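USER: My hope is that you can spare some time for a protein that puzzles me. I am handing you a single protein, as its sequence and its fold in C-alpha cell form. Walk me, if you will, through where the backbone shape changes along the chain. The protein I mean follows directly.
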Amino acid sequence: MKTESRKQALGGAIFFIGIVLGLTLAIAAVWGDFEGTSYFYTGTGYDSFSGLSCPILMTRSETGSVGIHFDNPSDQEIRPYYEVSISGVGATRKLEGQITVPAHATQDVHWTVGASDIDLGFFIFVQADILPFAGHSTREATCGIIVLDLLGLIGAQVFTATLAASLFGIVLGFGLREGASNLTTRRSRNSRSALQATGVTTLLAMLTGFMGLWFIGLIFCAVTILLLVIQLRSATP
C-alpha cells in the first residue's frame, strides 16, 4: 500500500511539473502575441493573415528569423505586396517588397531580428500587412517574441527542451498515477477525470498559443489554472 501511495505521489508530482512547464510556454506565446497586437494597434482593423511566423523565445545575444509564407493555390501567378514593421526603441523599422508566387506554389520571405529591435524591456514585435491582390482585401498579422537571458542557451533550445519535458512529464506522470490509482471510489474517478481535463487543456493552450490564436490560448490557460486550483484545494486536508 505504501509503495502504491508513493508511486501515486511521484506520478502526481511529475504530472504537475509537466503541466507547469507547458502552461509557462503557452503563457509566453499568448503574452507575446497579445502585447504585439496592442503595440501596433491603430484602431483600424483588417482581415487576419496566417502566414507570419516568429520564434516564441529568443536571447539578447542571438539573431532570430521572422518570415512570411505565401501560398498560391490558384491557376494564376500572383504578386503580393507586403509591408513589415519591426519594433525598436524610438522608432519602428520598416521593410517592404513584392514577391512573385507561381500558380500552385509557395514562397517564403525572411528577415532577421535582434537586440536592436527590443522594446518594452524584453519584447520584439513584428507586424506584416499584405496589401490587396487577387481578390483579397488588406490583411495583417502581428506577433511578439519574448527576449530573455538564458544562461548561454538560445531560445530554440530552451523552447524545445521545455516542450519535450512538458509532454514527457504529462504522459509519464499520468501513467504512473494511473497505474497506482484505485478507481473503485468516486473520488478516485473524479481525480482521474480532473487530471485528464488538465492535461488536455494544457495541450490545447500550447497548440493555440503556438499557432498565434492568442485569445483562444488565453481561455485555455485560464481554464487550466482554474483546474489546477480546484485540484490543489481538493487535495488539501
About this structure: The radius of gyration is 22 Å. The chain has four helices and nine strands. Residues 36 and 144 are 5 Å apart (CA to CA).
